[in-house]
Amino acid sequence: MSQRGPYAKGVAKREEILGRALEIVARQGYRGASVQVIADAVGLSQAGLLHYFGSKEELFTAILRKRDELDHLSRAAPSDPRDARDAFVQVIAHNSEVPGLVELFSRLAVEAADPEHPAHAYFLERGEVLRETIVATLAQLRRPPALPPETLARIVQAAADGLQLQWLLDPTVDMAATMEALLNALAQEGHP
User: Fold this and answer.
1) Distance between CA atoms of 59 and 46, rounded to whole angstroms?
2) HTH tetR-type domain: from which residue to which, for each copy (predicted)?
3) Percent helix, strand, coil in the chain (nearest 5)?
4) ∠ at Cα 19 (24, 56), nearest 5°?
5) For residue 68, is it within any domain?
6) Residues 6+ apart with CB under 8 A from 154
7) 132-154 residue pLDDT tens
8) Could you tell me if 124 and 85 lie in one domain?
9) What is the CATH number of the domain that holds 2?
10) pLDDT digits (tens, 9 = 90+) for 43-83
11) Residue 23's closest CA among 13, 10, 37, 12?
12) Rounded distance, CA 14 to CA 11, Å?
């Protein structure tokens, strides 16, 4: 049964805001995606926009959650470890097409080191899910990895996050090719 009334309208407006905000951040970057610009794009005042999110930081955290949701929905969970590796590299390749979202992710990741930041829980949860996925993929391999799977998952996550920062500093960095090279090297050593 579908929701009706003010609650359903609020949910729909929030989704509209997130959809437009994703487009704006991807195209214009973190600095170009002010609360005012996003509010204007959806026909609200700044106060009206923040009614749905509480603060700019909560809005930007919701944008990253929405991006993750859309990335997850657009890719079926692969059952073969090689397919999982390829899907991971494809996500990294896609990130080079949305520099504003990569910038937002990197900026919020640093700010979210503060446990009081609205994005703190998001980054902890996201990292845990990513590492669990990597560990589950490693469990499907014929040969166990030389490093503990949890350690290897943290290394792959650190490489992916670090590549994004390097790419923001130098857009000639090929994040996907570099990650693929790392994963191939690990595969030769009995890893993913």
Assistant:
1) 12
2) 11-71
3) 75, 0, 25
4) 65
5) no
6) 131
7) 988 988 887 777 778 899 999 99
8) yes
9) 1.10.10.60
10) 999 999 999 999 999 999 999 999 998 887 656 566 676 78
11) 37
12) 5
